[in-house]
Every structure is written in structure tokens, then in C-alpha cells.
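Long-time lurker. I teach an intro course on protein structure, and each term I like to show students one example going from raw sequence to a predicted 3D structure in C-alpha cell notation. This year I'd like something fresh instead of my usual example. Would anyone be willing to generate the C-alpha cells for the chain below so I can use it in lecture? Attribution to the forum is fine with me.
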Amino acid sequence: MKESRTNKTSKALPHYKVYVRLKPSKIHGVGVFAICAIPKGTSIFPNDSAPIMWMKKDRIKNFRGEKRRLYEDFCIIKDNGKTYGCPANFSLMTIAWFLNEPKRGQKPNVGCRNDYTFYALHDIATGEELTVDYSTFSEQIV
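-- Reply from a regular --
Happy to contribute to a lecture. Here you go:
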């Protein structure tokens, strides 16, 4: 395989505008952590253009076990639980799908815009876990 040439700016490198990484979380399983300081207002995942697949709940109503849990754990729920938004394929989930909610009594440090892009609500320190209030973009499963 021929090695690709790139220009000498960091824009050509895979870490360009990458602010976070996955690590074990004290909140829940795996979490998203800052690898550098993230200023208030920064778009957290600016290179994430993966589409959200929207489908009616009827398409998954007969799923059971771990397959069902994929949808319960990772989907965005809308329309009184009738519509599910998920990655186009669960094997291709981007880091954004791993944001946890903050511990009870704590405030999130990430907000969600109407287009499902995430941004820093305040300055986030290197090493800090990023958290978001799920209710700002998804309904609770009942």
C-alpha cells in the first residue's frame, strides 16, 4: 500500500479538531473525556457528519434481548416514543453516541442543538468527562 502524502499542517492529521476520546467512566460504563481544554461554545464533534437513521418503533417492536438493548441504550426517542433515531449501523457509532448523563445533582457540561450537534456549555478541562442531559434531545422510554 502506498503511503499517502499530506501537507504539513495539523489539518491533514486524523486528530484535527478531535477534542475527546472514550475511556472507562465512573458514571456508567464507557464515557467521553476531554483530551484538551475545550472552550465554552465549542462544537464538540465538528467532523461528525454521520447520519441519524429515523424509524418508527413498529420496526423494532419484536426485537428482544441484546438486540433490543442496542435501541434502548443508544437511540434518540421522539414523537411520544413512536420514532427512534439511531446510527445508520450500530457498528459505526461515533463517539457522540457514548455521552453519559451527569451524576444525580450535577449539571451537564455539554448541550445539544436542534440539529443534534453537541457543544460545550462552559469551559471543559482536560480529562473531564463530558455529560449531557438526555431530556434536551430525547424522550424517556416508558
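Some talking points for your students: The beta strands are 20-24, 30-34, 52-56, 76-78, 83-87, 110-112, 118-120, 129-130. The chain is about 5% helix and 20% strand.
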